[in-house]
Design brief:
This protein is mostly beta strands and 255 residues long. The chain has three helices and 16 strands. The strands form three sheets. Strands 1-3-5-7-9-11-13 form a seven-stranded parallel sheet, with no helix packed on it. A seven-stranded parallel sheet has the order 2-4-6-8-10-12-14, with no helix packed on it. Helix 2 runs antiparallel to helix 3. The longest helix has 11 residues.
Amino acid sequence: MAALTDILSGFRSVGSERLRIGDDSDAVQPFVAVDSAKLRVEVAAGVSARLVVVHEKPLASSLSFLLERGAQLGVTEVFLGEAFAEVRTVQAADSSCCLTAVQLAGANVSYRIDLDGAHAASRVDGLFLAAESEHCVMELRTAHNVPDCTSDSLMKGIAGGNAVGEFRGLGAPIHASVSGKVKAVEPRPYSMGGNITSVIIENDFQNTLSEEVQAPASPGALTPDEMVEIVKNAGIVGMGGATFPTHVKISGGIG
């Protein structure tokens, strides 16, 4: 926590419920908002800005980000307490928004993204580390309201003990290929280019399976819904490149 405080000490503090970033001179220095119950951020056309949002207290918060034509916004949201956050993003044409959520405590965050202009681009990355009886929830809804928009998301997490991590949206869980101890969470090179937040695990060579991917005792007794849930928890996706969740395809066939 002390290291995070030192890093954020050089950022510009947001002291009101509305922040208007009107030109590049306003955005030279990153902004930081701590325990904001309500915050509206507006980024003017063609302006690039960065913002860090920190949740330390168990509070409910409502955040909204409005990007005008060609605006770019990078938001990192860090949960250190059991907060509930609703985040709404509205993007005009040619805008770009990258949201990164890091849950280090039991928290609940809901993202609603509206892509309202052609060539608007959105990316959401989420990471949770849950321990003991914590419950981490991430929910994502992205609306492509016009043609020629793009969106991408990647959620990762580790739950230990009786903890629960839950992602709600069009996605699938990602499981580590080894069992062991988490040593770090840090940016690492990504196959699609650039760096992405990654979980570094020290292999214990025990190959211990998570309870979520254990084979059922009586497969023949499962209902269709139970089978779909098993496929979902196992993180099975298509291999065509889009990694479309298999449980969604099966559910559509059943329905």
